[in-house]
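Lecture notes, part 5. Sequence design as translation. It can be helpful to think of inverse folding as translation between two languages: the language of shapes and the language of residues. The source text, in structure tokens, appears below.
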């Protein structure tokens, strides 16, 4: 849909406005969008030279999203995909348009263009036990080859997958030793994540790939809720470490959301509401513009 596409802005004036906006956005608990950042008063964290350079390098890129239910939105994903953010759920969460999502905020803030949002609600990185083939898992050929639109290829891919692997207690790695390509790799999180990235890099060799770790959540509407880091029987830190190792082994950029210890607001302990989407966007932008962006 036209409303889900972020058109490029290439003028020097747009770039100057963008950099001024970013000087006010990098505080982890604030709502962020390109429009609101321009209006925000006060001084929080200024961009250093490296961050400013990174912001310019990322500006105006064609960006594809690779995720699960957290990144879905009715009208924004491929036809036939399983979605979470639809109808009444959108109303409940306050997530009604692309501008309300974490990926919409990130892409809008970078002055980028959404190419494809390949997100499937309920998908894991690893193979689902009730499926004959790998699809719709993140490591499947079908999904890792569906991040382009015709002849347009992504320049940036943001991966936010792994929540369902953690929630279902999927084996994080082989016996404490990093392994890729072994017999049952599709049932081991780190091995499957590694294979997924290999396929993405093969299909989109020019794309810069960012890999988000998993983040804790809270529920402002339910103060008694306590986030369970061991929801599937294995601590979330094991999966985040696996994501970082896999990303680094494939020369991709880990986006370590967990290290900030800033939970996002959610409607159910997993799926972010509008405020939670803003928190995720802030953290992702902070990492994408970090000094190690290469």
């Amino acid at each position: 849909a036209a409303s889900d596409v972020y058109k490029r802005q290439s003028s020097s004036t747009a770039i100057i406005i963008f950099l001024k906006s970013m000087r006010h956005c990098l505080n982890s608990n604030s709502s962020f969008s390109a429009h609101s950042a321009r209006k925000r008063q006060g001084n929080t964290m200024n961009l250093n030279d490296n961050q400013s350079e990174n912001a310019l390098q990322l500006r105006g890129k064609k960006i594809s999203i690779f995720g699960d239910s957290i990144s879905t939105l009715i009208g924004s994903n491929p036809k036939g995909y399983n979605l979470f953010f639809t109808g009444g759920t959108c109303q409940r969460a306050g997530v009604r348009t692309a501008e309300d999502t974490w990926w919409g905020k990130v892409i809008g803030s970078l002055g980028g263009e959404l190419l494809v949002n390949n997100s499937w609600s309920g998908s894991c990185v690893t193979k689902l036990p009730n499926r004959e083939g790998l699809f719709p898992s993140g490591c499947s050929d079908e999904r890792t080859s569906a991040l382009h639109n015709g002849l347009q290829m992504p320049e940036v891919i943001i991966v936010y997958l792994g929540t369902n692997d953690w929630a279902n207690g999927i084996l994080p790695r082989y016996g404490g030793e990093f392994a890729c390509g072994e017999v049952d790799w599709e049932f081991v999180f780190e091995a499957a994540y590694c294979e997924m990235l290999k396929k993405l890099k093969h299909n989109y060799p020019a794309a810069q790939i960012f890999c988000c770790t998993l983040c804790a959540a809270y529920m402002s509407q339910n103060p008694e809720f306590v986030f369970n880091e061991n929801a599937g029987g294995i601590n979330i830190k094991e999966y985040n470490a696996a994501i970082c190792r896999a990303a680094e082994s494939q020369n991709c950029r880990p986006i370590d959301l967990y290290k900030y210890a800033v939970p996002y607001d959610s409607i159910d302990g997993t799926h972010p509401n509008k405020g939670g989407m803003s928190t995720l966007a802030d953290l992702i932008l902070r990492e994408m513009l970090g000094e190690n962006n290469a």
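The translated text above is only one of many valid answers, since several sequences can fold into similar shapes. The first strand starts at residue 62 and ends at 67.
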